[in-house]
Recover the amino acids of this structure.
């Protein structure tokens, strides 16, 4: 059942054969086509649950970031992973908040952690970090021991 | 004399600072408030007692879990996963281990699969007990709280007997489990399950038809299935709306495919249904545990694979190969082949997914946790807006947001 669906998706997206990684259908798309691809996945194939968005940093690669989405179909019980690449100079993808409400908070997290910009999402305030946090901590060039300027040092309080 | 402390800026920026209607006021609840079990801050605009809009802030327990994962070997991460949802640490252990096992193409021995299923359900009971007990106590149902917490404490002590810790068990291993059951553990298990029937029955009797409870819970924070899916709700919150979506049924993992159980669903998707779905799920979990016990047979609980299993101590001290194997596993960690995997299990609060990217070697390149509590907090204001200020507490309790998992 899942295999037939995967074949149909592969056909619809013009792939020769579906790429399956540990049971998840993997789809690659250009950043410009992201929204259109997601809309098709949602409307034609029933991927109605937005599971997750995150990024993967490859500092030695051009373009540097993978933005990785996971969707789930509550009808067919399959998952699809959608990957797109964005460069460090312009890490922008379009937002999906108008398609999935749950994208809002996860885009905020991805924005603060990796500096990915979600064009059209007007609420990219920090979610897990705080106002004034400098840098994007999950980027590979952010040292784990990095200190942040806003927190007062303890020696101020004898 | 003490120097003046520097003025720190407000760590959050609320979505609104001005009222939208005449006579409304903006109040702040939390981040450390006795009625919100969990460190969370809610900025709400209220008109009289009614919440017009709300803005929920989390992140006070952020400790860089995902960053820290990139600096440790695969095996060392298991104790960190305990601390995600600390009410059911075992499920987090097993979900993480299963994701890594998929990357390494390891098949876990039958006994370990059954024990993982059994312990997942046991943890689910403990988690639901915590949620229901806390939510009831916040509504003043102290007796019901004490019944449930007594039961939960028996479970935690029983798990401590097995794993050595009450909450942070670290009992899962890549390829199996840390050790087999101690003697007499299953006898005690059946005693606890019998007590559970009695105690849950008492709570049903105290609460289900209680006028005050119904008034506070019925028709509060109503979600439809479509709304719940749109806002990413999974687990008991989604099921309370009437959608029977449960990963244990839909994409069976561990031993769930061969076990018999039902997926309880609600009717209206309100606070009362969320309470009732959780209560029914505990009964189903007990049923699942009894089936697992009946199927248990003696056998290994750890896969026989030198890539991840530590060799026997006697062999470490007598053979050079085992000594080196042990040394390499401890110092370099298990070597996981390159690849990426998304693996999800049905956590007590919803879909708990691990997205893992490996480039080979002993350390993950990236680990991302799809934590149900985080998504639920993101959509929380939809459940708070339009209801009364006092409804925030039971609504928040019924979602069972766990700070460790939400903030990572």
């Amino acid at each position: 059942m899942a295999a037939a669906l995967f074949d149909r998706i592969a056909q619809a997206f013009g792939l020769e054969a579906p790429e399956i990684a540990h049971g998840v259908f993997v789809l690659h798309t250009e950043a410009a086509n992201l929204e259109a691809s997601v809309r098709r996945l949602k409307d034609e194939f029933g991927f109605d649950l937005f599971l997750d968005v995150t990024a993967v940093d490859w500092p030695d690669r051009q373009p540097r970031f993978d933005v990785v989405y996971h969707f789930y179909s509550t009808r067919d019980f399959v998952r699809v992973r959608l990957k797109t690449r964005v460069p460090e100079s312009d890490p922008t993808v379009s937002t999906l908040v108008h398609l999935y409400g749950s994208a809002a908070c996860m885009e905020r997290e991805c924005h603060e952690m990796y500096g990915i910009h979600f064009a059209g999402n007007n609420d990219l305030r920090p979610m897990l970090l705080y106002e004034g946090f400098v840098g994007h901590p999950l980027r590979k060039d952010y040292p784990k021991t990095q200190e942040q300027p806003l927190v007062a040092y303890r020696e101020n309080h004898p | 004399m003490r120097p003046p402390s520097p003025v720190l800026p407000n760590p959050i920026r609320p979505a609104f600072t001005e009222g939208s209607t005449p006579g409304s006021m903006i109040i702040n609840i939390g981040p450390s408030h006795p009625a919100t079990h969990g460190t969370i801050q809610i900025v709400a605009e209220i008109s009289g007692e009614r919440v017009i809009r709300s803005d929920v802030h989390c992140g006070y327990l952020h400790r860089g879990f995902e960053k820290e994962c990139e600096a440790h070997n695969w095996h060392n991460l298991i104790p960190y996963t305990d601390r995600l949802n600390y009410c059911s640490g075992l499920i987090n252990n097993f979900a993480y281990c299963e994701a890594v096992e998929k990357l390494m193409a390891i098949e876990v021995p039958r006994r370990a699969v059954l024990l993982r299923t059994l312990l997942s359900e046991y943890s689910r009971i403990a988690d639901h007990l915590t949620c229901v007990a806390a939510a009831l106590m916040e509504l003043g149902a102290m007796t019901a709280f004490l019944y449930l917490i007594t039961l939960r404490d028996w479970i935690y002590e029983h798990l401590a007997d097995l794993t050595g810790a009450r909450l942070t068990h670290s009992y899962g291993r890549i390829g199996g489990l840390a050790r087999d059951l101690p003697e007499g553990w299953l006898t005690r298990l059946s005693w606890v399950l019998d007590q559970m029937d009695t105690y849950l029955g008492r709570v049903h009797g105290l609460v289900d038809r209680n006028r005050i409870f119904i008034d506070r819970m019925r028709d509060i924070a109503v979600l439809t299935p479509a709304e719940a899916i749109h806002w990413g709700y999974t687990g008991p919150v989604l099921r309370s709306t009437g959608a029977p979506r449960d990963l244990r049924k839909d994409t069976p993992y561990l031993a769930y495919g061969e076990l018999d159980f039902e997926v309880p669903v609600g009717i209206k998707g309100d606070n009362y249904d969320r309470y009732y779905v959780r209560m029914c799920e505990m009964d189903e979990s007990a049923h699942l545990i009894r089936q697992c016990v009946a199927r248990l047979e003696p056998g290994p609980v750890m896969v026989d694979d030198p890539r991840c299993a530590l060799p026997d101590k006697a062999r470490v001290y007598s053979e050079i190969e085992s000594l080196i194997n042990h040394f390499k596993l401890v110092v370099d960690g298990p070597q996981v082949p390159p690849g990426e995997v998304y693996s999800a299990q049905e956590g007590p609060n919803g879909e708990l997914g691990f997205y893992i990217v490996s480039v080979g070697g002993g350390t993950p390149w990236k680990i991302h946790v799809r934590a149900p509590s985080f998504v639920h907090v993101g959509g929380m204001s939809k459940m708070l807006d339009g209801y009364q200020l006092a409804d925030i507490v039971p609504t928040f309790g019924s979602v069972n947001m766990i700070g460790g998992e939400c903030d990572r």
Observations:
- The mean pLDDT of chain B is 88.
